[in-house]
Amino acid sequence: GQQLNQSPQSMFIQEGEDVSMNCTSSSIFNTWLWYKQDPGEGPVLLIALYKAGELTSNGRLTAQFGITRKDSFLNISASIPSDVGIYFCAGQGNAGNNRKLIWGLGTSLAVNP
Amino acid sequence: NAGVMQNPRHLVRRRGQEARLRCSPMKGHSHVYWYRQLPEEGLKFMVYLQKENIIDESGMPKERFSAEFPKEGPSILRIQQVVRGDSAAYFCASSHLSGGTDTQYFGPGTRLTVL
């Protein structure tokens, strides 16, 4: 099935450092979303992007919807230990019946206090 | 406002048994999605339902798997005659179409183990 290319696969950083991860696709999407998943839990929505070129922040998180609609990035500034987890990007097509999310394989983030 | 509820959180079945997974969407949400996640992988879409209708089942295996979202009560994902390869985490998401956007919120998942 279709899948997004998400990188890096994993990151190990020091507390206080900034983090950047990105997703690319061969298809265009109308919506890009970033989720975080903790072990044994469901994905939690971090940021939703609805327009090409849109730059949106949520606290220390910033994400952008690429102008080509085929990519997105997520930045985390001044990382803290509770940022540990797996971050997933997801793309969503047009409205109507094509609402399913297509997912990346995730970026595993470890933060050294 | 309660989030998406799923039960059971953990389910153990022997090969050949049936598994029933339940999902109650967020209040006011009329769209339900089911996804499957294998260990250390991303989520894979299975099926999209609205009340009493299957809208998109392109990700559902052709056999043994079925889903419903009745007028009253939770959405049910049913797996008949389970096999070891069905072992995975199954997540439900719900959404409410508003202003052209359709953001999906996820439940905690049901972890199915087939012995």
Label this structure with key terms.
heterodimer, A: 113 residues, 6-stranded mixed sheet, 5-stranded antiparallel sheet, 11 strands, 0% helix, globular, B: mainly beta, 4-stranded antiparallel sheet, 49% strand
How is this fold's topology laid out?
The complex is a heterodimer of chains A (113) and B (115).
Chain A (H helix, E strand, L loop, with lengths): L4 E3 L2 E5 L4 E6 L6 E7 L6 E6 L5 E4 L2 E5 L5 E6 L8 E8 L8 E3 L3 E6 L1
Parallel strand pairs in A: 2-11
Antiparallel strand pairs in A: 1-3, 3-8, 4-5, 4-9, 6-7, 7-8, 9-10, 9-11
Chain B lengths: L4 E3 L2 E4 L5 E6 L6 E7 L5 E8 L2 E4 L8 E4 L6 E5 L8 E8 L9 E2 L3 E5 L1
Parallel strand pairs in B: 2-11
Antiparallel strand pairs in B: 1-3, 3-8, 4-5, 4-9, 5-6, 7-8, 9-10, 9-11
Explained architecture:
The complex is a heterodimer of chains A (113) and B (115). Chain A contains no helices and 11 strands. By secondary structure, chain A is mostly beta strands. Chain A starts with a strand and ends with a strand. The model of chain A has no long low-confidence stretch (mean pLDDT 93). Chain B is mostly beta strands. The radius of gyration of chain B is 14 Å and the shape is globular. The N and C termini of chain B lie far apart (37 Å). The chains are: A mainly beta (113), B mainly beta (115). The interface between A and B is medium-sized, with 29 and 30 residues.
